């Protein structure tokens, strides 16, 4: 299934918290690269991603409270070598500078190791 049309719809219907987060992130560069929003990665669409830092930032509302789907999704993204940071919409709206500070400090921490490619035997070749 092509995720690109749905990602475009999500970019056009962002929540207030996502819009505020994006306003702060779009002007920031880390390692000379920009954040991207509502980006398809594998079977998922992430709120904001910085490919150079392998960093994903998610804005979560009440629908994410204790969601098993989120933990499965995060585990898959982490297996792909990404660090996933989640912030509650309420925190983004009330303390955007604190959230932004946490995000911008994250790339200074060691990035998770990239997954090793499968051997030829593992791919059935």
Write the layout of secondary structure elements.
Elements: H1 4-12, H2 16-26, E1 29-30, E2 33-34, E3 36-41, E4 44-50, E5 55-60, H3 68-79, E6 83-88, H4 89-94, H5 96-105
Parallel strand pairs: 5-6
Antiparallel strand pairs: 1-2, 3-4, 4-5
Region (Disordered): 104-125
Domain DUF559: 3-106
Organism: Thiocapsa marina 5811
Number of domains: 1
- Extract low-pLDDT stretches: none
> Structural class, please?
alpha+beta
Instruction: Find the CATH topology.
Output: Endonuclease, Chain A
Report the mean per-residue pLDDT as an integer: 79
Instruction: Tally the helices.
Output: 5
Q: So what's the overall shape?
A: globular
Helix fraction by DSSP (H/I, runs of at least 4)? 25-40%
CATH superfamily: VSR Endonuclease
Instruction: State Rg.
Output: 15 Å
What are its keywords?
single chain, Endonuclease_DUF559_bact, globular, alpha+beta, 5 helices, 38% helix, DUF559, Endonuclease, Chain A, DUF559 domain-containing protein
